[in-house]
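README, section 4: Worked example with a bound small molecule

Sections 1 through 3 covered apo chains. Here we extend the same pipeline to holo records, where the ligand is supplied as SMILES alongside the sequence. The molecule in this example is NAP. Nothing else about the input changes; the structure line simply encodes the ligand pose together with the chain.
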Amino acid sequence: MDKKYALVTGGSSGIGLEIAMLLAQRGYALLLVSNEEKKLHQLAATLAKQFNVPVKTLCINLAQTHAAEQVYEFAANEGIEVEILVNSAGFFFFGQAVDADIEKAKAKIQLHVLTLSMLCTLFGKDMRQRKRGFILNISSISAFKDFPGIAYYGASKSYIKSFTRSLHTEMKLYNVHVTALCPGATATNLYDPNVIDVELGKKLGVMMPPHKVAKAGVEALFKNKPEVVPGVVTKLMLYAALLTPQWVIYQIRKHTKWLN
Ligand SMILES: NC(=O)c1ccc[n+]([C@@H]2O[C@H](COP(=O)([O-])OP(=O)(O)OC[C@H]3O[C@@H](n4cnc5c(N)ncnc54)[C@H](OP(=O)(O)O)[C@@H]3O)[C@@H](O)[C@H]2O)c1
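The generated complex, written as structure tokens:
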């Protein structure tokens, strides 16, 4: 029987890499997609040896038009049947929306919104036909509330959550599992080290280790949950944020430097 593949965008780092390793542990072959060739090749060799599964790589900038079609064509040409699609590639920047670098802002929308959606459409259609498949999209707790300073990021993650929940309902009929993983702060390379001290976040317990986030996501996917917020502290932080009225956030911003 042909090997079943898990395609993981952003599989070279952080949450995506941990998800890829959990899936390899379950016997899935991997197609890792990200945009640094050397890192991908090194990782492919290490993971193939560690988990004894085939590991293929595709180096592509997913923040460009038609990236999803190129990934789909690559998989088809390689004869890869994608049973699991994980959309983890993403990036982050702080700052007021009107100060955003236009190219970075466009790239974020292309990567988080357009490429992710088109990958779901292209691979999801095959899954629906096979009546089997799994799609895990990485959203964020920032999808649940409007946060100043991360308008582009939060809005794109809200889109991912909403899109994924709709897709979950559509695909349930066809035995295709679809889940949105909504992590809080996680100790990865996502953050600029000059702005966020990840080591301190870990020590204080406000940042989760990526392997725990990944485990929660993979478990929720196999149980076909529409969405999952991993970790007790993250859930508490989310409830606190949801209970804080927007006018309080406005006052904090007005009278302190915090949240600016
Ligand atoms: N860390 C958190 O606190 C947190 C919280 C909530 C949600 N998330 C989400 O979790 C997902 C994974 O992030 P992470 O925390 O694991 O960060 P990470 O370690 O920085 O991983 C990001 C991954 O995305 C890839 N990537 C970024 N831009 C790309 C592009 N244009 N084309 C192709 N690949 C690209 C990176 O590839 P290269 O390494 O090759 O650049 C890397 O593999 C993201 O969607 C993020 O928004 C993270």
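What to look for in the output: The radius of gyration is 18 Å. The pocket of NAP is lined by residues 10, 12-16, 34-36, 39, 61-63, 88-91, 111, 138, 140, 183, 185-186, 188-190, 210 (CB under 6 Å).

Section 5 describes how to batch many such records.
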